[in-house]
């Protein structure tokens, strides 16, 4: 056994926490080590944690939580840190409980279509582990090559293919959870459905790490579809592209994915690592995928081609092989990062609108771009109305961060005003706390914090996330600006 | 307060609301959400208990001997609030009958992708509050997967929205999930927003009968089908008694439902025909014939509002259980149901999804035997890692059988949620697990 690394800190809590996880190799507490944990994928807001601990199993997580609970130490759980709304940022100098050592695939049961994973297990690894038998795990966030399933559960992560297959919550059958007081509970044991009682499985999924720490996950796995076809369609006018989206959905087809990018987004992806030769002068590209029984696919593809032609498509093509399909998807899935090729900084937003409102919302976002003087690229899961406006800015220019935040918030207001919502898959986190008021009344927010109180009465677990502070709206905005500019 | 006094007071406080009294029980029939809220607010102030009623099909689900002060019937609170065809979402008032909603949506070639029991009588509010589902949940999921937004009248009389009208939404906690399956113990569902699916272009039902009674053969076939790339929307095992009731064939029978474009359905039919074990008999039903089979299955179980099943007679009594196990353990439940009939002289009609793990068991027999069978099945399900709950209990066993079974280890949280949301416990008191 490796020698126990000595703890250089005199802090009693650091020493105790280190003892729980077996010594100095499983804890970080010095400033230079903590810097890497001062934010997640939402990078314009930074705070240092008190310490980062790396438990190896549920028992250690429970002991850490119990210690924090008894000593009133704020704490939170972190996976790969890919979250885009700041859910894993230690606002209150939290002890970060990192789940990355708990990364085993515990079991796979093909016959009953379930698998059990630890929370630190990487999303794509699950599909890779079962693909030789023809199975896969459906939720596919763009960060799936590195994000963890535990984090996916916390955020109720989506992905391009959730149009047909649903988001994370539709694929979670059971959870083992360490409650904020250190108790361990099991919900949906063995993945048995409809366990009697209130649906805690559904409530905890998407609670952004504020109701408990997930330590084991039973997920549903699916059989690969027999056939898959992917179509790329170029439109000279955004309005034609969005009409085509509506027409495809209305024709009775449920595509596996239906993605759209606008002109600015196309400029970004073509300048980045995975260009596929989209024409530079078009206004919109649609990426459409249908899957299912081979015998039924051609019929659906014909229908989609017909719809696109009726909507004045400039060019439409079907992927000739898996390699071509792969290139198209890589181009799309790296779309956010690709903005780095055309702008020093960018802010991702995540509004959702009723599909039929797409043309009007795009016009309004265009106006916001003109008014703010910042370019806004649009990448979206058009089939389910989930927009990702990417506000492009330069943090070195004084005042641009604030302008970008305001433009992002204005985009969410537009989504809320047409009957939509402020986040479809990235979560509220820190970023959209105030925007919660665009969609919920104070009473409706209180109804949610009431539930949190049942689970997390001391509010030591991931405090300050998800909900606006009652009546402190002005101060919070000031604080947000202060921490952004510092 | 005696009924007459309560009636006088209600008439004074709620002059607009229709009120009836029958056998000393007051029932209110609100027409608007405001009226529901007024009623609940009144009950909260006066500490009157409420029983929420939709179509009454589940009036025997989770019943207790608790007498409530007021029945709140949503049967006159009906209609579509908004249907955006292009968005494939619908918002509907809770008292709307499930079948009426589906008939309306069918005009637009759309549907709610749920197949609950008693679709003609059940209301959408009741289906959601009880989280009812049918065999096609294999392909389409359950209420958890379809409900995207709710308006709920809280026990304090305030209307709280959860979710929204978009198909993807992670703003705040997923509060919809709390109400789905909560048996009306947390509030009155008022408006329900659902995501829709296109109506299938073609539907087919394959019945595969295993007359040699060999469940291992059923298992081999099912595993092979599930491991193929076919996409059945239901793969339901009927035990011989259930098959007898539905298709007059006393043998283990698989009901395989296919819904897609016609070329795909035909292709899958051919695939399954090739996969058919030699000893199994295969029948294909299309369109109306398939629909009629499902209709028979959806109405096979006793309903709280059907006088034929609610009256006990000399032939004995009837009870209904829902059992949840790991998917393929449904085969074990089916086997156990056969053993039961020998041991307790009950008739157990059972069906369960081999891709879902959810079974429905109808038990007929003398009330003592039925009670024994319930506890035996519950223990058996628990040994398989599952659970069994009673969804319909005859009068003679009321109070003698625990309908929800043991409390889960995390019961504290369920109790905490109830205490937080309904501290005076006026909503459907003691209707849910552990006396919540």
From TrEMBL, chain A:
Domain FAD-binding PCMH-type: 45-224
Cofactor field: FAD
Keyword Oxidoreductase included in the entry's annotation: yes
Pfam families recorded: FAD-oxidase_C (PF02913), FAD_binding_4 (PF01565)
Superkingdom of the organism of origin: Bacteria
PROSITE patterns assigned: FAD_PCMH (PS51387)
Keyword terms of this UniProt record: FAD, Flavoprotein, Oxidoreductase
Name of the protein: FAD-binding protein
Record organism: Mesobacillus maritimus
UniProtKB/TrEMBL annotation, chain B:
Key words of the record: FAD, Flavoprotein, Oxidoreductase
Entry-linked Pfam families: FAD_binding_4 (PF01565)
InterPro entries noted in UniProt: FAD-bd_PCMH, FAD-bd_PCMH-like_sf, FAD-bd_PCMH_sub2, FAD-linked_Oxase-like_C, Oxid_FAD_bind_N
Keyword Oxidoreductase assigned: yes
UniProt superkingdom: Bacteria
PROSITE patterns the record matches: FAD_PCMH
Residue ranges occupied by any FAD-binding PCMH-type domain in the UniProt entry: 19-199
Residue spans crossing the bilayer: none
Gene3D superfamilies reported for this sequence: 3.30.465.10
Keyword Magnesium listed: no
PANTHER family (alphabetical): D-LACTATE DEHYDROGENASE, GLYCOLATE OXIDASE SUBUNIT GLCE
Entry protein name: FAD-binding oxidoreductase
Taxonomic lineage: Bacteria, Bacillati, Bacillota, Bacilli, Bacillales
């Amino acid at each position: 056994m490796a020698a126990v690394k000595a703890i250089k800190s005199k802090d009693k809590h650091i020493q105790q926490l280190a003892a729980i996880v077996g010594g100095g190799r499983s804890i970080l507490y010095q400033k230079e080590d903590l810097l890497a944990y001062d934010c997640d994928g939402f990078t314009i807001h930074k705070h240092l944690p008190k310490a980062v601990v790396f438990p190896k199993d549920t028992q250690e997580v429970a002991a850490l939580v119990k210690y924090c609970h008894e000593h009133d130490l704020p704490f939170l759980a972190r996976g790969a840190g890919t979250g885009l709304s700041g859910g894993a940022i230690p606002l209150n100098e939290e002890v970060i409980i990192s789940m990355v050592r708990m990364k085993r695939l515990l079991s796979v049961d093909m016959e009953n279509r379930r698998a059990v994973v630890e929370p630190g297990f990487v999303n794509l690894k699950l599909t890779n582990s079962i693909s030789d038998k023809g199975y896969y795990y459906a939720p596919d966030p763009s960060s799936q090559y590195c994000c963890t399933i535990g984090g996916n559960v916390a955020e109720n992560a989506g992905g391009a293919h959730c149009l047909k297959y649903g988001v994370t919550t539709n694929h979670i059958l059971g959870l083992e959870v360490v409650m904020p007081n250190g108790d361990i509970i099991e919900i949906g044991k063995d993945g048995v459905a409809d366990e009697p009682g209130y649906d805690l499985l559904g409530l905890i999924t998407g609670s952004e790490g504020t109701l408990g720490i997930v330590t084991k996950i039973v997920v549903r796995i699916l059989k690969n579809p027999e056939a898959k076809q992917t179509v790329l369609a170029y439109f000279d006018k955004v309005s034609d592209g969005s009409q085509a989206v509506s027409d495809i959905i209305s024709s009775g087809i449920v595509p596996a994915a239906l993605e759209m990018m606008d002109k600015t987004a196309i400029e970004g992806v073509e300048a980045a690592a995975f260009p596929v030769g989209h024409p530079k002068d078009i206004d919109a590209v649609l990426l459409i995928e249908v899957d299912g029984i081979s015998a039924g696919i051609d019929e659906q593809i014909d229908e989609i081609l017909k719809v696109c032609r009726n909507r004045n498509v400039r060019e439409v093509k079907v992927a000739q092989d898996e390699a071509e399909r792969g290139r198209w998807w890589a181009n799309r899935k790296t779309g956010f990062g690709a903005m780095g090729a055309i702008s020093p900084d960018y802010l991702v937003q995540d509004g959702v609108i009723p599909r039929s409102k797409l043309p009007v919302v795009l016009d309004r976002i265009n106006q916001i771009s003109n008014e703010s003087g910042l370019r806004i690229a649009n990448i979206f899961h058009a089939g389910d109305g989930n927009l990702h406006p990417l506000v492009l800015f330069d943090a070195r220019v004084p005042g641009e961060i604030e302008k970008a935040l305001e433009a992002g918030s204005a985009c969410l207001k537009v989504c809320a005003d047409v009957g939509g919502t402020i986040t479809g898959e990235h979560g509220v986190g820190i970023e959209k706390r105030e925007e919660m008021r665009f969609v919920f009344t104070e009473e409706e927010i209180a109804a949610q914090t009431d539930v949190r109180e049942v689970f997390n009465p001391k509010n030591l677990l991931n405090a300050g996330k998800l909900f606006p502070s009652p009546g402190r709206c002005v101060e919070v905005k000031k604080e947000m600006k202060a921490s952004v500019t510092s | 307060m005696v009924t007459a006094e309560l009636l006088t007071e209600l008439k004074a406080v709620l002059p607009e609301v229709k009120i009836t009294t029958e056998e000393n029980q007051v029932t209110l029939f609100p027409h608007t959400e405001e009226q529901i809220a007024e009623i609940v607010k009144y009950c909260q102030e006066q500490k009157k208990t409420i029983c929420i009623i939709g179509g009454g099909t589940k009036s025997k689900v989770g019943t207790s001997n608790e007498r409530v002060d007021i029945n709140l019937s949503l049967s006159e609170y009906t209609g579509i609030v908004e249907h955006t065809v292009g968005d494939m979402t619908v918002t509907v008032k809770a008292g709307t009958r499930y079948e009426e909603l589906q008939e309306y949506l069918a005009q637009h070639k759309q549907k709610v992708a749920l197949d609950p029991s008693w679709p003609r009588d059940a209301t959408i509010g009741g289906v959601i509050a009880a989280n009812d589902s049918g065999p096609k949940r294999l392909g389409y999921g359950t209420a958890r997967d379809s409900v995207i937004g709710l308006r709920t009248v809280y026990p304090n009389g305030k209307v709280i929205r959860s979710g929204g009208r978009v198909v993807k939404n992670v703003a705040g906690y997923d509060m919809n999930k709390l109400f789905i399956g909560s048996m009306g113990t947390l509030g009155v569902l008022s408006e329900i927003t659902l995501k829709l699916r296109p109506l299938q272009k073609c539907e087919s039902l394959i019945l595969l009968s295993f007359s040699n009674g060999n469940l291992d053969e059923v298992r081999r076939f099912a595993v092979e089908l599930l491991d193929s790339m076919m996409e059945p929307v239901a793969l339901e095992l009927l035990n011989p008694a259930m098959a007898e009731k539905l298709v007059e064939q006393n043998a283990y029978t698989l009901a395989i439902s296919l819904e897609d474009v016609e070329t795909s359905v035909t292709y899958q039919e051919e695939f399954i025909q090739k996969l058919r074990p030699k000893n199994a008999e295969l029948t294909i039903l299309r369109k109306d014939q398939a629909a009629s089979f499902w209709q028979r299955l959806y109405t096979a179980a006793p309903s709280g509002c059907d006088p034929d099943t609610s009256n006990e007679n000399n032939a004995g009594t009837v009870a209904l259980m829902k059992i949840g196990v790991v998917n393929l353990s449904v085969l074990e439940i089916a086997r156990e149901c056969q053993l039961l009939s020998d041991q307790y002289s009950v008739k157990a009609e059972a069906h369960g999804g081999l891709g879902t793990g959810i079974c429905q068991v109808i038990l007929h027999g003398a009330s003592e035997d039925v009670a024994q069978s319930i506890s035996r099945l519950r223990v058996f399900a628990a040994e398989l890692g599952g659970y069994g709950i009673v969804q319909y209990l005859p009068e003679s066993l009321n109070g003698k059988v625990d309908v929800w079974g043991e409390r889960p280890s995390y019961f504290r949280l369920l109790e905490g949620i109830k205490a937080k949301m309904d501290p005076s416990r006026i909503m459907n008191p003691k209707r849910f697990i552990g006396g919540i």
